[in-house]
Design brief:
By secondary structure, this protein is an alpha+beta fold. The chain has 6 helices and 8 strands; from the N terminus they run ββαααβββαβαββα. The longest helix has 16 residues, at 112-127.
């Protein structure tokens, strides 16, 4: 399997592998409390972001099947890193995957999340030939589940108190989209 042609571009964004030069911008995002509110990690120190970045750079595309793929989201006009998107193959046998996204709160509400996540859907359905992609989020994370809905994904589950999250029982929404739905969607 060959990697997609990097960088992948939309009207306003460049989606590309991370580089060591992304350290300052990535730290600027991952050190914010409001970014980590609904994530499984707390705001990260610079040293922690160094480790995260090391795990994301120079990863062969084939690792999408074992460790997932994390790509940088960059605004083309300003060359500003504003977040990342991820794609993980959950099952090769059943052609299932999961997408995720983290955007700087200062950049939200501009449609960047939808643009970047659409690239992941195309990558999953067209390049990896997956049958089904899911997205998961905390129900309190309204911008996340609204984005999943704008992508055409449907809410398939609301797991009540399904895990301990930050010391208390937390709920989870699961959204999904099938390849057939992706191919038949307008636009």
């Amino acid at each position: 399997m060959s990697p997609p042609p990097y960088p992948m571009e939309t009207d306003r964004l460049t989606i590309r592998p991370f580089t060591v030069d992304d350290l300052d911008a990535l730290h600027g995002i991952q050190s914010k409390r409001e970014v980590t509110t609904y994530l499984y990690w707390d705001p990260r120190s610079r040293d922690e972001v160094v480790e995260v970045l090391a795990s994301r750079t120079d990863r062969p595309f084939e690792e999408v099947y074992r460790k997932g793929l994390a790509l940088a989201v960059v605004v083309r006009d300003t060359n500003t890193l504003i977040g990342d998107v991820s794609l993980t193959v959950l099952s090769r046998e059943h052609a299932q995957g999961e997408i995720g996204f983290v955007l700087d709160p200062d950049q939200q509400g501009r449609g960047y999340g939808r643009e970047a996540a659409t690239v992941l859907l195309r990558l999953g359905f067209e390049d990896l030939e997956l049958h089904r992609l899911i997205g998961r989020c905390d129900p309190r994370n309204v911008p996340s589940w609204r984005l999943l809905e704008r992508l055409g994904m449907r809410r398939e589950a609301h797991f009540r108190e399904s895990e301990i999250f930050r010391g208390e029982w937390g709920d989870e929404y699961v959204y999904a989209l099938l390849a057939t739905e992706w191919r038949s969607a307008p636009g």
